[in-house]
Amino acid sequence: MQLYNSLSHKKEEFIPRETGKVSMYTCGPTVYHYAHIGNLRSYIMEDILEKYLRFTGLDVKRVMNITDVGHLTSDGDTGDDKMLKGAKREHKTVMEIAKFYTDAFFADCAKLNIKTPDAVVPATTCIDEFIRVISVLMEKGYAYEAGGNIYFDTSKLEKYYVFNDFNEEDLAVGVRDGVEEDGNKRNKADFVLWFTKSKFDDQELKWESPWGIGYPGWHIECSCISMQQLGEYLDIHCGGIDNAFPHHTNEIAQSEAYLGHEWCNYWFHVLHLNTNSGKMSKSSGEFLTVSLLEEKGYDPLVYRFFCLQSHYRKSLVFTWDNLDNAKVTFEKLIAKIAPLTADRSGDIDKAEYDRLMQSFNDALGNDINTAMGITVLYDVLKSGSGNATKLALIAEFDKVLGLDLIKKAEEKAASAGNDTSDLPAEVLELAEQRKAARKDKNFALADELRDKIAALGYEIKETRQGTEINKL
Ligand code: AMP
Ligand code: ZN
Fold it and tell me: What residues make up the domain containing 163?
């Protein structure tokens, strides 16, 4: 499989360190607000990557942190504490906010068919481990104390800007934004590992440490949680592109300084979802959520389909028109699959199955080209093979795409039936009641309702295509 690696800036053959096994780490959400659909674009694409790795037979262990402490509004250690901000906004404790938005995040993920990682670890459950790793960094001379805080000394590294796209210029952004520079830092790029002297007097969560009571910086959590769960080597690390600098750059700095060797081989970054007015951000307070999509009548899987139509390494513009287009295309796709479910008889055409499976693997194996994967779905529908072959392929592809294709097609087929638009309202109402009765397995009531419909001059019956109502 070919995968673009942000570290080498090229597509590479993906080779896990241990044959047949993959260790994968994902930066999880900062749980001070709902995830917006931009965040969820990253998680959808990472989910596809994980599912495709499994599809190829690899045994994946995936770990995600939950950021419930330490993340300031600027990734470069300045600004307000995000969790504290959320707690103040809602007059709740930080832990209440964390619990509420962690649950909300996984509820959104479930609606989008995003699999929960094998291990999900809140940062606040690993404070001892952070302190231990920071102590080692101090002992090794990679960290220093200044003004009560502990900083990572980036000048001790041969190369700090590992992703190349970023340079010292990027660091000036904070200054341009009018953010106060931290005078304790020896070098501009240094970052906080542990805060004791905080400007947040009302910081709720604080822990004892060798350097005084305080709390961890944001970056240390991902290094520690990854190493604790997955060991000292990591195959793939994922996140949205904004995580590359400074977050992932700092993760690499501290992990490799601690370990004394290279840490993670492949870096997978998802480009942003933007609106016409720019980047979507939680801190602006106005953003699009899965619940909002649902309120507007969209199935969350239409959003997943929308994301799969483009490549994860291209930024994607969200507009309601674009989503509507995706909705229409998705519904047409389901409508094309629906009739296949009526008759699944026949053998699998092995040659055709293998040919189309190869095309799907060529698409997904080429740096997770989901749009091409969807094109192969249409090739399946166009192919001359029978329903059994087509449905078997679609079911397999959907293990990666996660669009509930067969289930939705079956539902569509079951509800299709014949055209009922000209029937009297009374008949339709009785038919609805009968449908509910059948769903509740109340067949006596269903029969009674069928008789009432008959008394009005109509026959109602179940067919393979769904319920049909005809004039007697
Ligand atoms: P956060 O909850 O802010 O820590 O972000 C969670 C994930 O969403 C991270 O991997 C971010 O890089 C990613 N992310 C943030 N904004 C966007 C966006 N507009 N589009 C895609 N991914 C994003
Ligand atoms: Zn992280």
Answer: 2-270
Using alpha carbons only, give the angle 115, 264, 249 rounded to the nearest 5 degrees: 100
Do residues 398 and 430 both lie within one domain? no
| 304 pocket-lining for ligand 1 (C-beta < 6 Å) | no
Q: Is residue 220 part of a domain?
A: yes
CA 250 – ligand 2 centroid, Å: 9
Q: What is the pLDDT of residue 419?
A: 62
Is 260 in the same domain as 321?
no
**Summary mean pLDDT of the chain:** 91
Tell me the pLDDT band of 283, cut-offs 50, 70 and 90.
low
Ligand 1 atom closest to the Cα of residue 26 is: 10
Identify the nearest ligand to the CA of 219 by its number: 2
Counted residue by residue, the chain has a size of 472
Q: Are residues 189 and 65 in the same domain?
A: yes
What are 432-465's pLDDT values in tens digits? 899 889 888 899 999 999 999 999 999 998 765 5
Q: How would residue 84 be classed by pLDDT, with cut points 50, 70 and 90?
A: confident
* Residue 43 belongs to domain with CATH number: 3.40.50.620
Separation of 391 CA from ligand 2 center, angstroms? Answer: 39
Residues 333, 435, single domain; the answer is no
- Assess if residue 280 is contained within a domain: no
pLDDT band at residue 72 under the 50/70/90 scheme: confident
Distance CA 21, CA 417 (A): 47
What phi, psi does 150 have (nearest 5°)?
Answer: -105, 130
Q: Which of 197, 201, 223 minimizes the C-alpha distance to 77?
A: 197
Q: Decide: 117 in ligand 1 pocket, CB within 6 A.
A: no
Atom 12 in ligand 1: residue holding the nearest Cα: 240
Backbone angles phi, psi at 462, to 5 degrees: -90, 135
Rounded to the nearest 10 degrees, the angle between the axes of helix 94-111 and helix 82-90 is: 100
pTM: 0.87
Residue 50 near residue 23 (C-beta atoms within 8 A): no
Spatial distance between the Cα atoms of 135 and 121, rounded to a whole number of angstroms: 21
| 13/122 same-domain check | yes
Within a domain: 288: no
User: Given ligand 1 and candidates 32, 39, 81, which is best to mutate, with the most ligand atoms within 8 Å of its CB?
Assistant: 39
Q: How far apart are CA 235 and CA 51, in angstroms?
A: 15
Clarify whether residues 142 and 55 are in a common domain.
Answer: yes
Q: How many domains does the chain have?
A: 3
Residue 173 lies inside a defined structural domain of this protein: yes
